[in-house]
Amino acid sequence: MEISVVGINHRSAPVDVRELFALPGESASALLRAIRSECLFDEALVLNTCNRTEVYLVSDEPQACESMLFALLARIKSADAAAHASHFYRHDGLAAVKHLFRVAASLDSQIVGEDQILGQVKEAYRAAVAEQSSSYVLNRLLHRAMRVGKRVRTQTELSRGAASIPQAAVELAHQVFSNLTGKTAMLVGAGKTAQLAACNLIGCGVGRIIVANRTLSNAQAVAAELLQTHGCEQPLAQDAAEPACPMPPTRAALTTHAISLADIPSAISDAHLVICSTGSPDAVLTLESLGPALSRRHHPLLIVDIAVPRDADPRLNGINNVFLYNIDDLNRLVSANIERRRQEIPRADAIVDYEVQTFSRWFDSLEAAPTVKLLQQHFEELRKAEIKRYGHQFSDADSAQLERFAESLCKKILHKPLVFLRAGSGTTPVESKAAADLVRRMFGLDSLDEIKGEDADDDSDNGLEKRQ
């Protein structure tokens, strides 16, 4: 029995190939159902994001995984995977385990340290559980992968600091205002960049967002979507980074408002922050149109212009209480953060390597013979401990009888678990390992083996696994 992964990602395949084999939503479920109905693999899980499509498998025939999976993809996606085989990769055994752990830790992401991938791994696991395609091995593997992602996130600086331009714009705003809770932000432009910036702004507590766009209906659509999601609880982009500032302890109700570009001069007096990201060839925020309104303001205004060509007239920076930054300023901030993240990669990789070895020891230990040996050792230690504890209460003549009684009792208690283990060794490899692990956990045998309490403790946050 082997764990394998077959997939493509942003490193192995261009976007047009990734699009051919993307498995969002129902497509992933259809593939998992086909795998179950045809009994091709013991277990399966699909991880699909905008940058990767990967299928994790448990099988007795890892060498045949690719060809069988390619045949299924040809049916479900009507695309010839075999013709694009050079873009796919396959990892088996510990290489597959390490790959998943690096994915969950965001070490394999296009933006190293991005935060959404861990949630996507969790969602892929939920989908596999719902389709009953994830069982004993993948259950434990996925819980361990989520543990790795959490450890890397909390024990390293890999996710700290903005690594994208929209996120950097919000990080800069947080540095200027210290606290964005309740502030009003204006988005000039209603494209994807503006929406990503809005997601980060709401995550930092901004209470009101004004969306300004040349086409008012587009601004209204974006404003309505932001209001409906109320803080972008469902990410607007699958690999969007985490908010660029700490989540506020309380968040006021969000309000949104849509205006046309012509209405900016009358609305800008209410804004604390403006983020510009239109595709206009000419400046949208000019000194002539905004100068009078900005001169009457009493609170600071931060304008972050991430458009190329620039949306904001550089002369606006000369107005008192107006602070203008352009995309070059943000690029410097992003570059510094990315370099900081890059320096954290060895620490994150060390966590991954440790967790791979921990999983490997657990997986290798799940055989009947070593578990039988540990179980017998456990009961022998119990027998000796009880004899030592109560032996002094018996006469020398009765001590031998006590020894025989304790030995006989232990053998009788051991009989059923040993039969259970030996019967399991004649079933499928997955069932055999599941039987061994159940006995190990039931009698606390890991404390006797080289796998110390970490795997035993791991079940504390394995709610899904406990219910399998």
Question: How would you characterize the overall build of this protein?
Answer:
It is a single chain. With 468 residues, this protein is α/β, with parallel strands linked by helices. It has 3 domains: 2-155, 2-Layer Sandwich (Beta Polymerase, domain 2); 165-335, 3-Layer(aba) Sandwich (Rossmann fold); 367-466, no CATH class. The protein is 52% helix and 12% strand. It has 17 helices and 10 strands. The protein has helices at residues 15-20, 26-38, 65-77, 94-104, 116-130, 136-155, 165-177, 192-203, 216-229, 264-267, 287-295, 327-365, 368-390, 396-424, 429-442, 453-458, 463-466; strands at residues 2-9, 43-49, 52-59, 89-92, 184-188, 208-213, 255-260, 273-276, 301-305, 322-326. It has a 6-stranded parallel β-sheet. The chain has a 4-stranded antiparallel β-sheet with strand order 2-3-1-4, sandwiched between helices. Helix 4 (94-104) packs across helix 6, helix 4 (94-104) runs antiparallel to helix 12 and helix 13 (368-390) runs antiparallel to helix 14. The longest helix has 39 residues, at 327-365. The chain is elongated, with a radius of gyration of 29 Å. The chain starts with a strand and ends with a helix. Mean pLDDT is 84; it is low at 230-242 and 450-468.
